[in-house]
Amino acid sequence: MRAISTLVLTAAALAATALPAAATPPVEAAVVLQAQGRLEARGAAVTVPTRVKCQNGASGSLWVQVTQNVRGELAVGEKYTPTVPCTGDFHKVNVTVVSRTKAFRPGVAFTTATLNVYLPPDNSTVIEEEREMMLVR
Asked: Structure pTM?
């Protein structure tokens, strides 16, 4: 009888270690780039309207890049926003991106946004959005 109970306990221990650990549920997050950006200071910068959503209790940061072909040369700029609101609801975040090369012009530009979200103690996610955006005065 003792041998059977030892065998049962050993089998139960092996089965428990063979099962995968419960996965941590993903952090709720989203980022949306709007269809139109506004040129600032005669094209030196562009305001990129975004909507961000991250789980209540998390902390989030946002990185936005704008690239535009201006007469065969690239106008490029990026902006890092170290904190965005994380309440579980969507929030409008306007990000002003300054060109580090040429001035932006009215027309189409390619825009990317990366939302990094961290939920203590050890859960995080990265959400990316990219699209063509119309730059207007």
From this structure: 0.81
